[in-house]
Amino acid sequence: MIPKVDVAVIGGSSMFSINFPEDLNLPYVNVIEETMVFETPFGESPSIKLFEVKGLRVLFCRMHGWRPNVVTRGVASQQLFWVFQEAGVKKIFAEGGVGSINHLLELKDFVIPNDYIDNSMRQDVNLGGPYLLMMRESICPTQADLLTNAAKETVAGTERNVFKRGIYVNTDGRHFESPAEVQMFRTWNADIVGQSICPEVYLAREIGACYAGIYMVVNYAEGIIKDWDHKDLSDIFYEEPKTVGSILIKALLNLNLQQDECNCKNLRKNTLLKDGK
Ligand SMILES: [Zn+2]
Q: In terms of Cα–Cα distance, which of 207, 259, 243, 253 is closest to 52?
């Protein structure tokens, strides 16, 4: 039922307005299954696409699996990652739009974070595996390098910046953050704020997969630089998705399916807790 696939891509708001990967019109990309939905212990999964890039098979899900008929975003992530676990996914790329907290960031810059802070109120979002999850080096450095290089190549010759490190603070949403919250996040040394890296980063570790994401600055966070403009946000929303899609395809083309260049799989240990304790 669930195909065996090594690699997955989780799409976010930066690619919401296109049909990925079809709209990139790349001759070496073929869609194999457009809409697969699976029963999971957490309810019916979001719609998942299976495509192939030069022989590499990839599962793709839009908007982190969030959709109106799912109770919480955490449940959507559990459904999605349960499918990835059953498929045997070992490498995951994610993307999304974020607000900038760091004053050095400009609209449309890219950040590939190397760490995160979970300020969401979601609790117990896991798949029930018997593991102790270490969140040291939570973002796969090998995959982060692939995203960084792909982004730099894609925006070469423009004024856009690509940052290969940064701290992503995750909030619940769906609303944006207040100016006072943003000031608090600054004191935490956060660079960008968004709503998707958690719980994905935990669930990736739980299923033994490497995880890295690329995030485009789509607005200044409240109280940072200047009040953000809805027009800027909508221009980015409609004009930039193909840039993000191209970066992801480039990263996929350079992916090494072995997990021997990073330490990710060694950061999942067996739990010391036994039943009932
Ligand atoms: Zn890794």
A: 253
- How far apart are the CA of 85 and the centre of ligand 1, in A? 16
* d(C-alpha 48, C-alpha 250), whole Å: 21
Q: Is residue 274 part of a domain?
A: no
| Interval between CA 139 and ligand 1 midpoint (Å) | 7
CATH assignment at residue 22: 3.40.50.1580
User: 249-270, pLDDT tens digit by residue?
Assistant: 999 999 989 878 999 999 999 9
Could you tell me if residue 58 is inside a domain?
yes
Going from the Cα of 204 to the center of ligand 1, the distance in angstroms, rounded, reads: 10
pTM over 0.85: yes
Q: How far is the CA of 210 from the centre of ligand 1 (A)?
A: 4
* Distance from the alpha carbon of residue 138 to the mean position of ligand 1, in angstroms: 9
For 78-87, letters b (16+ CB in 10 Å) and e give bbbbbbbbbb
Residues 6+ positions from 41 with CB-CB distance below 8 Å = 82
